[in-house]
Structure formats: C-alpha cells, structure tokens
Specification:
Helices cover about 25% and strands about 35% of the residues. It is of the alpha+beta class and about 90 residues long. A hairpin with a 2-residue loop joins strand 2 and strand 3.
Length: about 90
Amino acid sequence: MCLGIPVKIIAITDSEKMLAQAEVKGVRREVNVALVSDPGSALEELVGSWVLLHVGFAVSRIDEAEARITLDLLDATGLAEELAAMTPR
C-alpha cells in the first residue's frame, strides 16, 4: 500500500540538493522537494506550502484544507500516532 502523508514545508535546508524541513504533528523530517518545485522559482517560495510526502519525497502540492481532511482521517484511524512515532531511517 502506498500512502502519501500531508506535511508542511517549514524551511529550506539545502537549496543545491533541493532539501527542505517538513513538519507534521510536531515531527520534523528532511524531505526532497525536487518534484514540487517550479523551475526558475526560488525554493523559499515553498515554505508554508502543504505537500504529500512519500518515502522522503514531496510528490505533489495540496491545499491546507485537503491536508487537514487527510490528517483528520489518519487521526480517526489511529494511523497518525503511528506515523508520528516512526523515526526516519
């Protein structure tokens, strides 16, 4: 099963490598934003954006309302706590 988790981009950590810091439910992870960046635009424009995260890559941008709906569903199923407890490898 593939699962994209909504996360919010909070900082750019390495523009050259296209890496950003993302957060969900207080858990922060470094993610690759190459797939959601606009060519010719500064990566800093992504700060504050919500994206779907899959295996360390931001795979698509989503709006905050969609992110909240998905996080609410994850909360209802109990998966949000499991995901927040997972440590990055």
